[in-house]
């Protein structure tokens, strides 16, 4: 023999004697506490997911942040190229020095359509100066 414990209006009634109307069978909506608890749990789960993804891709996010901040920054005005001594600097291995001196530099300085002013270490470098000062 089974006796009902809830709802309160049916408490103590034997199951055999129980008569439920269709409205009572449909059931009640879930209590507000359930929805609040479910919402808080989902918010916490998503917050942990977002933090985890941000930590995992922190370098990518930092790179995108710098790209975006550089994109927002105004572009500085371009400098005039007329005040440079040389158009280009040839950096080469000492094994290639002969080819650079006899082939590359003459080609760039004389035979090209718009001749370049070429800076070569062996010819144009002042000893005792820093590379930054010369370039």
From TrEMBL:
Residues 84-135 form the TIR domain. GO terms for biological process: toll-like receptor signaling pathway. The keyword Transmembrane applies. The keyword Transcription regulation does not apply. One of its GO terms (molecular function) is signaling receptor activity. It comes from the Eukaryota. This is TIR domain-containing protein. It comes from Capitella teleta. The lineage of its organism: Eukaryota, Metazoa, Spiralia, Lophotrochozoa, Annelida.
């Amino acid at each position: 023999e089974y006796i009902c414990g809830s709802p309160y209006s049916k408490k103590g009634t034997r199951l055999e004697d129980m008569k439920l109307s269709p409205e009572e069978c449909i059931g009640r909506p879930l209590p507000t506490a359930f929805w609040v608890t479910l919402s808080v749990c989902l918010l916490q789960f998503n917050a942990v997911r977002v933090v985890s993804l941000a930590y995992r891709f922190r370098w990518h996010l930092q790179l995108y942040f710098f790209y975006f901040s550089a994109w927002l920054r105004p572009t500085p005005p371009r400098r005039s190229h007329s005040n440079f001594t040389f158009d280009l600097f040839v950096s080469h291995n000492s094994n290639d020095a002969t080819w650079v001196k006899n082939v590359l530099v003459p080609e760039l300085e004389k035979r090209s359509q718009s001749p370049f002013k070429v800076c070569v270490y062996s010819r144009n470098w002042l000893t005792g100066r820093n590379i930054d000062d010369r370039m």
